[in-house]
Amino acid sequence: MGLFVVHHNPSRTDDMSFLFVKDGFDWLAFLFPPVWALFHRLWLVLVAMVVFALLLFFAAEWFLLPVLLIYLPACGWLAFAAGSVRGFFLSRRGWREAGLVLAPDLQGAEQRFFGGAGGPAPSVFFLPA
Q1: 98 within 8 A of 18, measured Cβ to Cβ
Q2: Complete DSSP assignment for the chain
Q3: Of 2, 59, 80, 102, which residue is 20 to 30 A from 110 by alpha carbon distance?
């Protein structure tokens, strides 16, 4: 089971006005942070990761630091905080948190949140507006 944070864009009225962001470890953010940032259009995170990698590269040459001992924990932190980072930047763009859903996958989270045929499931928590 995974926890999904549901974000709602009040300025849109189509099917794309809800976004489900899984809270938890993100392998793409751990293995390829710039690709993850590009995929989710997080330009500030992308620039920060590139600058961090360049600074680390030059510091490794000057101080003989083992780059992986610093880079891997930073990528690990980003992987664990990936959902929160996405949520932060969505809120900066005007999206609001609409609820939390416990579900095994994205499709199950959508079905539980939108109620399916029998109304909202017990594992859906709506947040006050």
Answers
A1: yes
A2: -EEEEEEE-TT--SGGGEEEEEES--HHHHH-HHHHHHHTT-HHHHHHHHHHHHHHHHHHHHH---HHHHHHHHHHHHHHTHHHHHHHHHHHTT-EEEEEEEESSHHHHHHHHH-TTTS--TTEEEPP-
A3: 80
**pTM for this model (two decimals):** 0.79
Residue 117 scores a pLDDT above 50: no
